[in-house]
Amino acid sequence: MRQRFTIILTFVAIIGLLVILNSLTYVKKEKVEDMETEPNRSTYHSGPTGTRALYDLLSESGYKVIRWRESPERLFSESSKSVNTFVVIGQIRIGFTGNEAEALREWVARGGRLVLIDRYCDEAIVPKSEGWRVTARQWNFPTIDDNPADTQKMTSGVTAFHPGQPTVLTGGIETVMPSRFAARLSVLPPLKEENANHDSSPDIFYDDLKREPVKASTSAAPINHMGNREGALLVDYAYGMGRIVVLSDPYIVTNSGIKLNDNLQLAINMLASGGGLIAFDEYHQGKGISQNPWAGYFAGTPVLALGAQIALLILLILWTNARRFGRPLPLSHTDRRSTLEFVASMAELQERSRAYDLAIENIYTRTRRVLARHAGIDYNSSRSEIAKRIAQRSTIDAHQLETLMRQCEEAINGEAISWRQSLDLVQRLRAVEKNLGLRMRAREERQAAENI
After folding, report:
1. Which of 46, 60, 398, 416 has the fewest CB atoms within 10 Å, i.e. the most exposed one?
2. Cα–Cα distance for residue pair 126/86, rounded to 1 Å
3. CB neighbours (10 Å) of residue 290?
4. Residue 73: its H or E element
5. Proportion of the chain in helix, strand, coil states, percent, rounded to 5
6. Mean of the pLDDT values across residues 96-109?
7. Is the pLDDT of residue 209 over 50?
């Protein structure tokens, strides 16, 4: 009995030691550096090749957007009827299966809207329509030396594109700046054999699940919205009752490229012109809902690794007579990316979209909190109360301070404001902080030092 107790106690001590070691030495794998040869086009990714800035801007601007993390076959479910636009941004991590591509084509034929942003056109998801088809040709390919965060290098030698004709997709656009790796789209007409077999009636697409006919209501001939003598950059065409939009360069909508020229306006036109809910395909970016909920709960923690080690330890004890082992640690990796890349992109987007109220809100919220603390009252106190207390403790005029606070709150609540007015409000807020001797937070001091 005592011998068994000793074995059990030893086993518990080993497990306890493993728990302590995992908790102290667990090292989270650092993110690899972004490269244009292996881009990450996910809306979760805030690096140069990601599209998080576009997703966040659309969401904050009032557009209805979601991250689609299920198979395209789920587009026909009751909960997905509100999806109007499905966005696929290549290069995807997981390819479309035959059933998934077939379901996506059927969804478009029944009135959906597909936006494909890629340098390659897969005929499985960009099918022919009445014999017309769209192909992509790429003659310049990125290398490991091409830094996607360097906009000058990415657009070296590229001439900005002008709209070819006034359309819904080119509204409000003067020029668009793609990367030097942008493909060119070609529109190929139906073959002679197809013309001979094609009558004057519109094409009929069938629902493979219900076999219900869906007739095309408009011409299937693709429209070239933007391009040059080398080929088109932006094309769209009718497929059944829906439409397919193809843009041949994903760099235009990435965190690094969306701030150039009118790239942002082009992205908004393509995604929001159809109205309704916009679904970004994250399923084929490797973000699908496919893992066990219990495993997902502990993802990013040492619990799963610890459980695997305990199971392996039991096997090794039985097999090798309790020989111990040590787990390998990942090598250190230096992240060469600037921590302010995403911040700079968001700031540029806010300036281009004239979202001055967001800048005022970010600064005023912190200043009001500091003023309330300095006055010794609650944050939710009225403007007049805060101004009165500040005036009692300083040389600042209570009426001027209350007026400044009211103007800031009116701008935040939607009153029209120019960039000069927003700059004046920020300068007056900073002047109040300086007058009261309120120091910037440590994080802001570090950011100011990095910008020098």
Report:
1. 416
2. 13
3. 12
4. none
5. 40, 15, 45
6. 93
7. no
Measured in whole angstroms, how far is the alpha carbon of residue 357 from the centre of its chain? 22
What SS3 class is residue 246? Answer: strand
Residues near 96 by beta carbon (within 8 Å), at least 6 away in sequence: 72, 104, 122, 124, 125, 284
Go through the domains of the chain in sequence order and give each one's CATH number.
52-285 (3.40.50), 354-451 (no CATH)
Q: How far apart are CA 422 and CA 355, in angstroms?
A: 10
pLDDT at 449 over 50: yes
Contact 379, 372 (CB under 8 A): yes
Total length of the chain = 452
Average confidence (pLDDT) over 86-95: 91
Q: How many CA atoms lie within 13 A of 450 on its CB side?
A: 11
Inter-residue contact 408 to 346 (CB < 8 Å):
no
Residue of 235, 233, 243, 237 whose CA lies nearest to 275: 243
Q: Report whether 75 contacts 112 (CB < 8 A).
A: yes
Helix spans in 255-397 (H):
263-272, 293-297, 303-320, 341-352, 356-375, 383-393
Three-state secondary structure string covering 79-137: HHCCEEEEEEECCCCCCCCHHHHHHHHHHHHCCCEEEEECCCCCCCCCCCECCEEEEEE
Residues paired with 85 in a beta bridge: 113, 278
Residues 6+ apart with CB under 8 A from 427: none
**Residue 246, by phi and psi: left (phi above 0), alpha (psi -120 to 50) or beta?**
beta
Four-residue CA torsion sign, 130, 221, 132, 267: negative
For residue 219, how far is the Cα from the chain centroid? Answer: 33
**Helix (H) or strand (E) segment spanning residue 316:** helix 303-320
Per residue in 370-381, pLDDT tens?
A: 888 888 888 888
Six token digits for residue 110: 């029944």
Produce one character per residue of 299-334: b if its CB has 16 or more CB atoms within 10 Å, e if not.
eeebeeebeebeeebeeeeeeeeeeeeeeeeeeeee
Residue 27 reports pLDDT greater than 60: no
- Six token digits for residue 151: 């906009």
